[in-house]
Amino acid sequence: MSFKKILPLLVAAAPVALATPALAQQAAPAGPAAGITTQLPRGAAPSHYAIEVTPDAANLKFTGKVSIDVTVATAMPTLVLNAADLTFSSVTLTPVKGKPITGTAKIDADAQTVSLDFGKLVAPGSYTLAITYAGIINQQANGLFALDYTDNAGAAKRALFTQFEAPDARRFVPSFDEPSYKATFDLSAIVPADQLAVGNMPVKASKDLGGGKKLVTFGTSPKMSSYLLFFGLGELDRATKMAGNTEVGVITGKGNTGKAQLALDASAAILPYYNDYFGVPFPLPKLDNVAGPGQSQFFSAMENWGAIFTFERTLLVDPRFTSEETKRTIYEVAAHEMAHQWFGDLVTMAWWDDLWLNEGFASWMATKVTDKLNPEWETLLSRVDGRERAMSLDALKTTHPVVQKITTVDQVNQAFDAITYQKGEAVITMLEGYAGEDAWKAGIQSYMKQHAYGNTVTDDLWKAVEGAGAKGLVSIAHDFTSLPGIPLVKVESAQCQGGNTLLTLSQGEFSRDDKDKTPQSWNVPVKAQTLGGEAQRLILSGGKGQVTLPGCGAYVINAGQTGYYRSLYPAENMKALAKGFGTLSSMDQTGLMADNFQLALGGYQPIGLALDLVDAVPTDGSPAVLAEVPGYLKSSYDMLEGDAATRAKIAAYTSKKLSPALAAIGYDAKAGEGPQVPVLRTSLVATLGSMGDKVVVAEANRRFAALASNPAALDGPLRNVWLGIIAENADQATWDKLRAMAKGAKSDLEKSTVYALLGKAKNEKLSAQALDLALTDEPGKTTSAAIIGQVGAAHPMQAVDYVLAHKAQYEALIDVSARSQALARLGGGSADPAMVTKLDAYATQYLTPESRKVVDRSIAAIKTRIETRGRLKAPTAAWFAGRK
Fold first, then answer.
1. Beta-strand runs (E) in 328-392
2. Burial of 642 (0-12, 13-18, 19+ CB in 10 A)
3. Which whole-number Å values give the CA distances from 591 to 257, 404, 607, 613, in the listed order?
4. pLDDT (tens digit, 9 = 90+) per residue, 45-63?
5. How does 826-858 read in b/e, with b if 16+ C-beta sit within 10 Å?
6. How far apart are CA 824 and CA 507, in angstroms?
7. What is the pLDDT of residue 4?
8. Are the C-beta atoms of residues 691 and 654 closer than 8 Å to each other?
9. Distance in angstroms (rounded) separating the CA atoms of residues 166 and 310
């Protein structure tokens, strides 16, 4: 899942031949292995499901029949399956050699289970369990859900899709809905004859039933976990392309496949690379990427095997407003979900404790392949941003290890965070650097071949990589996946001796809210070098160590930024780094700025040393590095909230430093400009506009006014940036114009984007109007939460108070799986002590101790933000006051 989406082939009269490769399917176990977590009673396990569903899209309900081949290993009083929001009509159990036994169903809604009682013990043996049932079609992304949209002709339409990760297949079919209960699936559906049905596998048969209905039957899936099952239905088109022996496709609303060409081309390019890298060819005959209108506030895409689901905003390209950053995101999300076809689908974690085996690896692999196939994008630089997102959580007492203990449904849903994704990617990056690319790749291939169609735990991977030649990797890997927190590597002394530099290092722990704690101990792989010198490596073990570097002068102790640790330098080295900053690699420039800014926020060094690095970034150097500078200046600006005079000085400095670069590249793309220039342009315009730069704001107003005579006046990759500046600074008349623009938008993608911008207004009267608008039907069922989210970013207390006053209405606008964390996300950016009290009271009243983790994390972040701003306002103001 990304924490980032026809031809009539599937409905042709002639069935599609299933050229399914021989799959090394393992025998079905009688439940999870010993030591593997399960919330279901042990002793029974499925090997095959045959499901038939009949959706009633108009009335938001469906009926279903399922036949499950079950092996019972020990006598059981009842058979217990997962089920949520389902009702049951009949239940029968048929032994392989015997007569059907009628059963009764008892639902436990809180546990999301159904107990099937057959009047006596179910003896060991093989059975067929047949159930008829009914369920609901949701309007948010849980289980089988509906997305309403307007097609290109302006007609109202409804499409159906499924979203089952983590525990929502149980809303579609009564099932053993845990990752270790793998089985094969036959899926059939009775659907409107003029609509396209989509599943994990190609259509095997399509039968006309008369009355405008048809029965569509998909091919048998490989052995897989229930959360990877997929079904889609609607007035859809499909475009395809061959990648070796695999047909890759994109499925969109009618008339939109051309907008998915980037995703289609990306899939065709990425698949051969993955086939080679993993050493196991993609085992399904087709791989579709299915675009769904609308959005979720909590995920962008889902890796269903052979049928990836992606919201349109992360799949379709519209030349009128799609930015360069969005195009790259589309590529990377496709790469992420495709990587899951191996890491997650072919080989699946045994329980959600090891979710990072799915998400961390997919994130790492997506970055790797994007960089390999598009080196001009400098994608590896994004790993610094990812590291920082992870460390922002990992520096607080409320953090958790990469491998975490999961016991409840809410904990599963809350496990999709930056520790799982970005810390996972950062740790893998570090371990690959330690092992070497060849040994790492060989270990991955061994792991894939050994565990194909099975389930694993984290240690299975470490053993495979160490077995491929990466000696000593297991101890490092255990430290960084089992211990929460961030190592702090400090340079105790640096001595130039005979043309070499002797560094004495110590290891502590970086924390934002618990600096006095006794530091944990990690085995830290350190890579250090002097500027221009040869890099040297050591394992910092036992809390201290030494390394000799060729050359003297400024040095870096996380060269290449592959290490997951903070690096604390003496002030004299910081000054030397600032002086020679332009000679560092783009990766080290980016990483050093991020690292030192956070060290300053944490109180480990003066903020001036970090801002000196930002100041040292040359405006005529790397566009990719310069694009990072606005973020640090905006952070400083936000830190001085309530101090208008100092904010004006920060804004003046920002304009002085960045405006020449913007003038040099211009507001509009030029032929032959470098690949990173569009990204820089967006960063400069967005930040200068947000901080009220008069020239940029005037340009935004000029372009917006030009819409009256030229509807294309804003068209281009900066369209939404210009509109964001307009929205942020809007008065009532401007806000009303934006609302009218949203109403009249030519596509649902454009419509949802502009509606969301209405929540950005600085004017609280206008943001209050945006909140009221969100609770109407006007924006659309999946857009309303985005409006509220934008208000939360600008006015967190206003958004939280509004949601608390309209709790039931708000919860109907978001995914069920995200309800326990939604309020914390709305208020988590606050620096108001009253928000701490409000969030804690909410969690105490509505959440269990197990489900309030995200709320506690937001509370910790708010407390830390308050302390940091109080401590740094004066020195930050002083630094900017000294800049003319």
1. 348-349
2. exposed
3. 39, 27, 16, 11
4. 999 999 999 999 999 999 9
5. bbbbbbeeebbebbeebbeeebeeebbbbbbbb
6. 33
7. 42
8. yes
9. 16
Whats the size of the chain, residue-wise?
884
For residue 255, what are its two tokens?
A: 């008339």
CA distance 518 to 388: 23
How far is the C-alpha of 710 from the C-alpha of 833, rounded, in Å? Answer: 47
Q: How many other C-beta atoms lie within 10 A of the C-beta of residue 405?
A: 11
Q: Kindly report the number of other CB atoms within 10 A of residue 708's CB atom.
A: 9
Produce one character per residue of 616-631: b if its CB has 16 or more CB atoms within 10 Å, e if not.
bbeeebbbbbbbbbbb
Tokens of 429: 């990056």
**CB-hemisphere CA count at 13 Å for 739?**
19
| Cα 179 from Cα 31, distance rounded (Å) | 11
Closest CA relative to residue 751, chosen from 438, 233, 312, 328? 312
C-alpha distances out from residue 209 to 188, 192, 197, Å: 13, 10, 15
Taking only the tens place, the pLDDT of each residue in 396-430 is: 999 999 998 888 777 787 778 889 899 999 999 99
Q: What is the average per-residue pLDDT within 669-698?
A: 96
Indicate the Cα dihedral angle 706, 712, 717, 723, nearest 10°: 40
Compute the distance between CA of residue 300 and CA of residue 294 in angstroms, rounded to an integer.
10
Spell 459-494 as b/e; 16+ CB within 10 A means b: ebbbbbbbbbebeebeebbbbbbebbbbbbbbbeeb
Copy the structure tokens of residue 140: 């948010």
Cα(838)–Cα(403) distance, integer angstroms: 31
Annotated catalytic residue: which of 312, 337, 509, 728? 337
Alpha-carbon 353 to chain mean position: 17
Residue 305: alpha-carbon gap to chain centroid: 18
Contact assessment for residue 266 and residue 234, using Cβ atoms and an 8 Å cutoff: no
Give the pTM. Answer: 0.93
The span from the CA of 63 to the CA of 133, in Å, is: 6
Report how far residue 253's alpha carbon sits from residue 240's, in angstroms, rounded to the nearest whole number. Answer: 15
Q: What is the pLDDT of residue 71?
A: 97
Give the CA count within 13 Å in the CB-facing half-sphere of 388. Answer: 20
Those residues with Cβ within 8 angstroms of residue 94's Cβ, 6 or more apart along the chain or in another chain: 100, 101, 127, 128, 129, 130
Q: What are phi and psi of 246, to 5 degrees?
A: -105, 135
Q: What is the pLDDT of residues 766-796, one digit of tens each?
A: 999 999 999 999 998 889 999 999 999 999 9
* Residue 348: strand pairing partners: 455
Q: What is the CA radius of gyration of the chain?
A: 28
- Output the pLDDT for position 883: 86
Tell me if residue 337 is catalytic. yes
C-alpha torsion 258→262→268→271, nearest 10:
-140
- What is the helix (H) or strand (E) element at residue 410, kind and residue range? helix 409-414
At 724, give phi and psi (nearest 5°).
Answer: -65, -40
The average pLDDT across 553-562 equals 96
Q: How far is CA 677 from the centre of its chain?
A: 26
Do you find a cis peptide bond into 644, omega within 30 degrees of 0? no
pLDDT of residue 360: 92
* Tokens describing residue 256: 């939109």
